[in-house]
Amino acid sequence: MKRFFYFSAVTVAPLFALLLVVSTFVQARSVESIRCGTEMVRLGASTFELIQKCGEPDLKETIEAKEETSERWTYNCGTGRFIKIITLRRGKVWRIEEGDRGSGPSRCQ
So where are the chain's domains? Predict the structure, then answer.
């Protein structure tokens, strides 16, 4: 059978490395805590503690799965600062991610 494309480890490795680098910039980065002003919010913190330390989010989304409902709160911290994405389950901070850089005035405490 005749090959139309020929790939060797030498040509595939740089392409794979480039794909890996690009994918890290596109996806949100998971972190274990975030700073809101002088306060820290960590995984497992209550919704009350999150509001007390970071204020109300810019966006609240409800995510309904088969067995569980969660919320995703987004904080746009302004130009040059990372957007913070907090996932809440059962009234607790379940996941903290940093997205792309935000825009506009700083709204984070």
Answer: 29-101
